[in-house]
Amino acid sequence: MPPHMVRFLEKLAGEPFKRVASADSVPCIEQSDPSRLCRNPLVSVHMLTYNHERYIQQAIDGVLNQKTDFEYELVIGEDASTDRTREICFEYQRRYPEKIRVLWSEKNLYADAGNGVRTNAACRGKYVAYCEGDDYWTNPDKLQLQVDAFRKNPKLGICLMGTDVEIESTGERRPFDAARNFVGLLPAGRHASDFVLFRRRINGFRLRRMCYQTSGWMIAQDAIRDVKTRLADLFAVCLAFGDTRTLVAITEWHDSFFIGRTGSVYRINPGSSSFTSRAKLRRDLILLKLYWLVKIRNWPRILA
User: Fold this and answer.
1) pTM of the prediction?
2) Is the sign of the CA dihedral 148, 152, 158, 161 positive or negative?
3) Which stretches of 168-285 are assigned E, i.e. beta strand?
4) CA 235-241-242 angle, 5° bins
5) Lowest-pLDDT range, 7-16, 57-66, 286-295?
6) How far apart are CA 248 and CA 203, in angstroms?
7) Could you give the count of Cα atoms lying within 13 Å of 223 in the half-sphere of its Cβ?
């Protein structure tokens, strides 16, 4: 990332960009039972949680209810909650030692993205699925459907499923609208409810307006490592649009697969990332777009 681009955006934002901590520097204590834990999970479920006492049981149950023909693990990054979240996670780990690992520390790590860093590093599976502690899965076949897609398409980088949106303050539930998400993108004769394979670049930056919440994702670890190698400087910066950065990068160089059915619910509540300040969201989106145009699309003239 050109240094003058970063300085320009930091001046607009009125503050410097935070750097992502390295996994080795993040404090981490793990509660798990190695003697009973599955040895070779095909999928790791990545779950970050902080003060999710009201939601965490539903999130964990949605993962444990999955019906699969393979082993999977649930890796929970518990970020020094001040409510009963940690206690609930520990209780589940003791009840399901073959599946659950809880990563924790006495210090809250959100400020430098440390909780996500250590949870990412701990995932052992060939594929990683995501479910935040205040979201939940509704389809017991979610993992199986996505793994089947990877088995049939070895070049896949990511498999997406639809996600409903639940607004806690009003109780409103907005169903996933596949037709809206894929307007103008589907091949002739294909419907949004189909299983659709996209050959890279599925939506470009239109993705930020779409309902591709992370609770519907499964990503190949090889694809994650590839984009972080290609874009090391971009992934070193903490962004409010971190998920968009990952999605756009993976679909730039890897095939994507969409399963046209709903698998999860994304809950909007006062403590969710949806409440990130508009100024920070605007700043980070500008950074992401400029980076893409300059470094990936080779538009150095834009900086003039």
Assistant:
1) 0.88
2) negative
3) 172-174, 195-198, 217-220, 255-268
4) 35
5) 7-16
6) 8
7) 26
Q: What is the DSSP letter of 237?
A: B
| Residue 104 phi, psi (nearest 5) | -155, 170
CA torsion angle for 214, 139, 202, 231 (degrees, to 10)? Answer: 30
Distance CA 288, CA 246 (A): 11
Which is it for strands 43-49 and 156-167: parallel, antiparallel or unpaired? unpaired
Neighbours of 96 (CB within 10 A): 15
Nearest to 266 by CA among 161, 181, 182: 161
**Do 77 and 115 form a contact (C-beta atoms < 8 A)?**
yes
Angle (CA) 186-246-2 rounded to 5° is 120
264 close to 216: Cβ distance less than 8 angstroms:
yes
Contact 50, 89 (CB under 8 A): no
The strand pairing partners of 218, in sequence order, are 129, 159
pLDDT per residue as tens digits for the range 68-92: 999 999 999 999 999 999 999 999 9
Strand-pair category, 217-220 with 29-31: unpaired
d(CA 60, CA 46) in angstroms, rounded, equals 11
The tokens 């950065």 sit on which residue? 245
What gap in Å lies between CA 15 and CA 48, rounded to an integer? 26
Cα separations in angstroms, 163 against 3, 9, 128, 203, 243 = 37, 32, 17, 17, 15
DSSP 160: E
Residues in the chain: 304
Other C-beta atoms closer than 10 Å to the C-beta of 300 total: 11
Which residue reads 């307006």 in tokens?
209
